[in-house]
Every structure is written in C-alpha cells, then in structure tokens.
Amino acid sequence: MTGQVGGRAQASAPTRAPMPSLTRRAVLSALLLVPPAVAACAPSRSTQAAAPDPLGALAAAARADAALAAALIAAKPDLAGRVGPLRDARTEHAAALEAEVARQAGTTAAAASPRPTPATGSATVDGLRRSIGAAGDAARQVALTADARRVGLVASVAACCTTYAAVLA
C-alpha cells in the first residue's frame, strides 16, 4: 500500500530545492558593487562650491573699472562723452555679475557695494585701457570654463571690455 489511509491518498511533503551556497566569487562581486552604489546615493559635493566663484572677481574688477572711469571723468571732464558709457557699462556688469553670484549661491543679491574711489592722479586713459583689457582677458578665461547658464553673461562682459579697450587705444 502506497500511502493510503482510510481510502485517501496521503500527500507527500514537498521537497525543497537546496539553497544555493554563496561562493567567494559572488561575495567579491557584491562587494565591488557597493562603493559605486553608495557614492551614487551620497550627497554630491561640488568642487565649485569649495572654490570662490570666479564671477565675484569679475564683479570686483567691474566696480574698480567703473570707479576708475568716474575718477578719470572727474579729473578730465572733456572725456565724459568717451568714458561715461564705459563707466555705466562696467557698473551694469558689476550688478549683473553680483546677481549671478547670488543666484548661484542661492541667496538674494546684496545691495551694491560702495564704489571704490581711486586717487584722481592715477586716473589716466591709458591706465583705464589697461584695466579694461585685463578685465576682458579675465572674463574670456572664465567664459571658457563657465557652465551654459553663465557663459552668455561672461562672454558679453569679455566682448564689451575688449571693445572698449580697443576704442580707448
């Protein structure tokens, strides 16, 4: 008799498949996948956050150039028609660059810092031209590494500075 009790067939206990044993290879493979998975889940730390924002230096240079142009106009009022638009443009550059630095940092733009006032004796057209040329070169270098949201602003500043340097020559 094959497992019949009282006219019923007796069900045999289900057989379990043997559990696959963990091999050394499987454990090592899993361990190799853990660091990239953990790194992907970790909050990212940007190297850009650690370094000062290069647009801050461009904004400071723009403020200094605007102050130099204002000093030149004060020393030689006949240059107001030639240098006044440059002073206004550099003031606008400073405001736009400072606003972008604040946007990137997630803060609101600070009130415009007071203009530095260079000594009037040091204000010359040639000094202003050199300063504007250096600012254009610096902006051009920053534009080469700027992200897509900032490159238009920085390239515009570089083009404006380069143009004014050529006009003042």
SSE layout and pairing:
Blueprint: E1 4-5, E2 8-9, H1 24-41, H2 47-50, H3 54-75, H4 80-105, H5 125-145, H6 148-168
Helix pairs in contact: 3-4, 3-5, 4-6, 5-6
Feature tags:
two-stranded antiparallel sheet, rod-shaped, mainly alpha, 169 residues, 66% helix, 6 helices, single chain
Summarize this, please?
The chain is mainly alpha-helical and about 170 residues long.
Describe what you observe in this structure:
The structure is a single chain. The chain has 169 residues and is mainly α. The chain has a domain at 52-106 and 121-168. It contains six helices and two strands; from the N terminus they run ββαααααα. A hairpin with a 2-residue loop joins strand 1 and strand 2 (8-9). Helix 3 (54-75) packs antiparallel against helix 5 and helix 4 packs antiparallel against helix 6 (148-168). Mean pLDDT is 80; it is low at 111-121.
Note poorly predicted spans. 111-121
Separation of termini? 115 Å
CA radius of gyration: 34 Å
What is the β-strand count? 2
Beta percentage is: under 5%
Which of globular, elongated, flat, extended, rod-shaped describes the shape? rod-shaped
Mean pLDDT: 80
Number of helices: 6
Strand order of the largest sheet: 1-2
- SSE series: EEHHHHHH
Amount of helix: 55-70%
The major sheet is characterized as: 2 strands, antiparallel
Estimated structural class: mainly alpha
